[in-house]
Design goal:
- By secondary structure, the protein is of the alpha+beta class.
- The protein has 5 helices and 19 strands.
- It has helices spanning about 5-30, 100-135, 145-175, 225-235, 385-390; strands at about 40-45, 50-70, 75-80, 90, 95-100, 180, 185, 195-200, 205-220, 245-250, 260-265, 275-285, 295-315, 320, 325-330, 335-345, 350-355, 360-365, 380.
- It has a 6-stranded antiparallel barrel with strand order 2-9-12-11-10-13. It has a 4-stranded antiparallel β-sheet with strand order 6-5-3-8.
- The relative contact order is 0.18.
Length: about 400
């Protein structure tokens, strides 16, 4: 290629480069300069503050009657009548069954007749002993005769006492033919009908009476939880002035709350070795007899009050791959920091935090998907941004 041709090509390339540079400048000028920087993400935060919180524990348990009595006969015989309505209420002393009393009436009459005979016999023996006592002083009768008369009198008096005891026994057995209610309460079904033969102190009960105006709820607590509770009370982290009379609430089998509160009565002093748990007993009023023995319930027992509790909304706490509770906090210069938390329990929609946060720190609960540790954010109180967005008028799109 000739030198002149080379010069022409270089000149044309320079012109093209200049045109392209001018076109780029024009385009840059038409777009307003360099591309805009990314905007600072805005997050909603909750400022940590302490507040008193009443801590509770939910324990499973079952209902038992305040008083229960199994009705059994104390004498044997044939049941003549059943005198109560199954499933009804009975009063202590009320007649429930009548056993055929014929043989017991005869035994009572016989014992009474023996006693009368003994009382009649003792009169003559007493008079004889009195006379012999006077005659023996003048040697009208021998000393042996007097001793025999005195001994016969004492034997007759002993027969009277034995007759009285026999008559009392017969009267008691006769009274036992009328089987009465030992306590007041609601009676269940009868296991026998008229005509059935029953025996004294038999193994099977004729009926069962349960007092349901007030019932017990027996719940179980693990010994580990009991130790933790005692440590917290001892250290002062929890305060409970009336630990022995703590209030208890009840959740029924269908999840509904029982309207009346109960009171804790006592706890067992022995740990069940098979379950490692301790039984706690609470007492509940039951005026409508809604609570029935054997019913499964969950008791909500007050542990105490934590006066400096830190509560974090659950929406602001996540879990890492190791299962640790993690929260993002806005630190100095509005830079996001990652914190690992220790949580004690969930209370409603918040977590009770025991470590990892301090009073006054700002926890991110809104806008978490747009931030990561180390970046700078714009802070707004939780809910304020959503409220502002809701108050802005809608823009009509063409």
């Amino acid at each position: 290629m000739k030198t002149a041709d080379k010069m022409k090509l270089l000149t044309m390339a320079g012109v093209l480069a200049g045109l392209l540079a001018m076109t780029g400048c024009k385009q840059q000028d038409s777009t307003g300069g360099s591309p805009p920087a990314k905007s600072t993400p805005e997050v909603g935060v909750v400022v940590m503050s302490s507040e008193p919180v009443t801590l509770t524990m939910e324990l499973s348990g079952r209902i038992s009657p305040q008083m229960v009595a199994e009705v059994r006969p104390q004498v044997g015989g044939i049941i003549q009548k059943r005198l109560f309505t199954e499933g009804g209420d009975v009063i202590a002393g009320e007649a429930l069954y009548q056993i055929d009393p014929a043989t017991y009436q005869a035994a009572y009459a016989s014992a009474k007749a023996v006693l009368v005979k003994s009382e009649a016999n003792v009169f003559t023996l007493r008079q004889k002993a009195k006379r012999y006592k006077e005659l023996v002083t003048i040697n009208a009768v021998s000393r042996q005769e007097y001793d025999d008369a005195a001994a016969a009198l004492k034997q007759a008096e002993a027969d009277i006492e034995a007759g009285k005891a026999a008559m009392d026994t017969a009267r008691i057995n006769l009274a036992y033919t009328r089987i009465s209610a030992p306590i007041s309460g609601r009676i269940g079904r009868s296991s026998v009908t008229p005509g059935a033969l029953v025996t004294a102190n038999q193994a099977s009960a004729l009926a069962t009476i349960q007092q349901l105006d007030s019932v017990y709820v027996d719940v179980t607590q693990t010994s580990a939880d009991l130790l933790r509770l005692k440590r917290n009370l001892t250290s002062g982290e929890l305060k409970n002035k009336n630990a022995d009379q703590a209030k208890v609430k009840l959740l029924l089998e269908d999840g509904t709350a029982y309207p009346l509160e109960g009171a804790m009565k006592f706890s067992e002093v022995t740990v069940d070795p098979s379950t490692g748990s301790i039984t706690l007993r609470a007492q509940f009023p039951n005026p409508d007899q809604l609570l029935l023995p054997g019913m499964f319930v969950r008791g909500i027992v007050q542990e105490g009050v934590q006066e400096q509790a830190l509560l974090v909304p659950q929406r602001g706490v996540s879990r890492d791959s190791a299962g640790n509770a993690v929260a993002l906090v806005v630190g100095e210069n509005d830079v996001v920091e990652r914190r690992v938390l220790k949580t004690d329990r969930a209370i409603g929609d918040v977590w009770l935090v025991t470590d990892g946060l301090k009073i006054g720190e700002r926890v991110i609960v809104e806008g978490l998907q747009r931030v990561r540790p180390g970046i700078t954010v714009k802070v707004a109180p939780f809910g304020e941004k959503a409220a502002e967005a809701g108050s802005q008028p809608a823009v009509n799109k063409p």
